[in-house]
Write a structure and sequence with these properties.
With 397 residues, the chain is α/β, with parallel strands linked by helices. It is 29% helix and 19% strand. The chain is globular, with a radius of gyration of 20 Å. The protein starts with 10 loop residues before the first strand and ends in a 28-residue tail after the last helix. Strands 3, 4, 5, 6, 7, 8 and 9 form a seven-stranded mixed beta sheet that branches. The protein has a seven-stranded mixed beta sheet with strand order 10-11-12-13-14-15-16. The chain is built from eleven helices and 16 strands. It has a domain at 4-105. The longest helix has 17 residues, at 338-354. Helix 5 links the parallel strand 13 and strand 14. The chain has helices at residues 30-40, 155-160, 170-184, 203-217, 232-239, 254-260, 262-267, 269-283, 300-312, 338-354, 366-369; strands at 11-14, 20-22, 43-44, 50-51, 60-65, 68-73, 82-86, 91-95, 98-105, 127-129, 132-136, 188-192, 221-224, 244-246, 288-294, 315-321. The protein binds iron/sulfur cluster. Iron/sulfur cluster is lined by residues 55, 141, 143-144, 149-150, 153, 155, 194-195, 261. Iron/sulfur cluster (SF4) is lined by residues 55, 141, 143-144, 149-150, 153, 155, 194-195, 261. GO terms for molecular function: catalytic activity; iron-sulfur cluster binding; metal ion binding.
Length: 397
Amino acid sequence: MTTQLDYAPVLERSDADGRAISGDRSRFDISSLTIDIQARGVRMDAPMERRAGGAGPTDLGMLWIEGYRVTAPTTNVGDTPYSLRAEDEGYGIYVDGVRLAGAQAQKRPRYYDLKTADGIPYEQIALLHLDSLATTVIQTCTYWGNADQCTFCGIGVSLDAGRTIVKKTPEMLAEVAVAARDLDGAVDATLTTGSTRGVDRGARYVAKCAAAVKEASGLPVEVQFEPPYNLDVIDEVGDMGIDSVGIHLETFDPEVLARVAPGKARTGIETYFAAWERAVKVFGEGQVSTYVILGMGEDPEITIAGAKRAIDIGVYPLLVPLRPVVGSLMADWPSPPSEYMEPIYRRVQTYMTLRGMDSNSAKAGCARCQACSGLKSLDAPIGAVPLTIGRGPLDLA
Ligand code: SF4
């Protein structure tokens, strides 16, 4: 169990008010802190923008901790030792009054106050996740509301709550993207979609929307879709100028996949690999990614082996902890502890390094942002992370 004592070595000095402050950034284990905050959450002692419901990061606060993007639970975090406090400039992460790290919190984006000419709030068209514009272009899914529904997903939740609209058009998204870039500093756009029964599974429409965003704003774009029935669709997506794609298997463990995502299980793991291989040919190594959700009962060794196989063909496995979405079928599941997450992160990240892949590869999208994963924090410069703080030597096997 990670405790305050794990971070004791960072405490070097106090400020004028006697408040303990952290030492040099390079002296403490920012990756372990980030991963633990992602797992245990942070209590809000200061107001902060957060997101409820939806298909992406939900019911979470969005932060930069020592410069790293981090999404972290901010509700139902009764036993977390971490709290976020406002400071003169930005925020601090504290445990029992001891400051561990500096933080910045996302402010309410200014473009949220704008509307389209026909009165649709921009906020219902696309959200800002830290510096990434994100939207679900078709907020329905052929799997939703039946036996095939992915148990971790909340795509119908925000629609039912009236927080979004069922279908966004390329024109709407282009308009919002320009505003998000100019008013709030968006640096890329992530567009996902519920799956359709069509041969393209929804890929053509989400790519059309992304192409409009890119043309209007110049932002790099990622689109996410299920493996098309006809893989030639992936070439069409590439021809539209899309930068990166996410084709999300969610777990490499076949038994877990059958339980949590029956529709995806029917598609089959080998079909994902075939789609990834085609996509890597079109978009390049590191521009194709898959979410890998940890904490759903999967076998870690099967997970790591699957991640390595994906890396071998140029696919970035974006490891994330299960974040139970209110209203989803897994709403009552716990998030996995950092003690479970961190060794898997480290083994996969080490393999990626050996294969020349890193978290800076992706031009756009979730694999570029990385706020929901602990992988990027492991990219800290060699020597910056004291490998033995509170834990003993790390298993890098
Ligand atoms: S395929 Fe699964 S995760 Fe994706 S939108 Fe449909 S139900 Fe949600």
